[in-house]
């Protein structure tokens, strides 16, 4: 793994409170192509693969859809992937097998009641990244995202009187506890000390503020992971993840957003602790 002092030192500081910045993911990607080692490029492959997954769902639903250009694949490759999947002649060495399998099964699943292709694809992506990414922190990042998604979904389902099992995906210790425990917190507080904060987020009535709180929590996790390794590939990955968050926040009202984030981040700094199992030793 490389030490990217010059790269990271040359990047502008970005904060939750200010979505305006002088660097874009596209600009940074050009720098990364020249600066990163081949092994570290394999790590960042996963960051852009998530966009490939989003694009694939869009194109399966609408071949003329506008796609995000922050992926690994070209339009020709998306077409090749979908065509080969339909012909059941896909090459797992050319594309991740889970994407080809998703494309092949989409026609059978798309009209099923309660089927949400975006959620299904996101789960498959998380599972793939958790199992195959060569970098420990990045694997932990996607595991954290999967756990947060399942935990928040479980709380929301229970709050609305829905069958929790219908909305949870995966087979791990978190999903097992959610599906087998009837206590208010699914007994997760004893295993995941951040669950208390997630329970507060679920009670937030404003969907925009709720999304901000979730991203603020994730931002702090990334900061904790890279605090002592600010020139590492992990720091590069974390910076990209933060840029991705800011790209969404940039669409919100700036003044209201800045004040809200100041409050959120201060509350989290004072109340939340990074999950012990994710803290770098």
Describe this structure in words.
With 281 residues, the chain is an all-alpha fold. It has twelve helices and no strands. It folds into two domains: 22-134; 135-281, no CATH class. It is globular.
- Measured as a percent range, the helix fraction is 55-70%
The tally of domains stands at 2
CA distance, first residue to last residue: 17 Å
| Rough outline | globular
Strand elements, count = 0
Q: Could you say which structural class the secondary elements and strand pairing correspond to?
A: mainly alpha
**What is the chain-wise order of helices and strands?**
HHHHHHHHHHHH
Low-confidence stretches: 271-281
- What is the averaged pLDDT score? 84
| Fraction in beta strands | under 5%
Computed Rg: 19 Å
Structure at a glance:
The protein is mainly alpha-helical and 281 residues long.
Which key features would you list for this structure?
mainly alpha, globular
Question: Topology of this protein?
Answer:
Layout lengths: L4 H5 L15 H11 L2 H24 L13 H12 L10 H13 L7 H16 L3 H24 L13 H8 L14 H8 L4 H20 L6 H17 L4 H18 L10
Helix pairs in contact: 3-6, 3-11, 4-5, 5-6, 6-7, 7-9, 10-11, 10-12
């Amino acid at each position: 793994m490389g030490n990217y002092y010059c790269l990271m030192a040359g990047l502008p500081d970005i904060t939750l409170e200010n979505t305006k910045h002088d660097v874009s993911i596209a600009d940074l990607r050009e720098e990364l192509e020249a600066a990163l080692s081949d092994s570290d490029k394999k790590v960042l492959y996963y960051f852009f693969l998530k966009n490939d997954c989003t694009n694939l769902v869009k194109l399966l639903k609408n071949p003329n859809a506008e796609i995000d250009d922050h992926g690994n694949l070209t339009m020709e490759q998306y077409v090749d992937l979908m065509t080969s999947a339909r012909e059941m002649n896909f090459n797992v060495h050319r594309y991740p097998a889970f994407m080809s399998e998703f494309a092949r099964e989409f026609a059978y699943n798309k009209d099923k009641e309660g089927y949400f292709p975006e959620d299904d694809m996101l789960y498959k992506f998380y599972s793939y990244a958790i199992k195959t990414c060569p970098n420990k922190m990045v694997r932990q990042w996607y595991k954290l995202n999967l756990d947060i998604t399942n935990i928040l979904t479980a709380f929301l389902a229970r709050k609305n009187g829905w069958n929790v099992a219908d909305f949870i995906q995966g087979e791990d210790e978190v999903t097992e506890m959610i599906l087998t425990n009837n206590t208010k917190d699914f007994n997760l507080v004893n295993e995941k000390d951040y669950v208390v904060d997630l329970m507060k987020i679920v009670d937030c009535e404003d969907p925009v503020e709720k999304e901000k709180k979730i991203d603020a929590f994730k931002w702090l996790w990334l900061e904790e992971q890279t605090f002592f390794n600010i020139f590492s590939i992990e720091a590069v990955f974390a910076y990209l993840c933060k840029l991705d968050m800011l790209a969404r926040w940039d669409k919100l009202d700036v003044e209201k957003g800045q004040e809200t984030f100041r409050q959120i981040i201060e509350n989290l700094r004072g109340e939340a602790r990074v999950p012990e199992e994710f803290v770098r030793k």
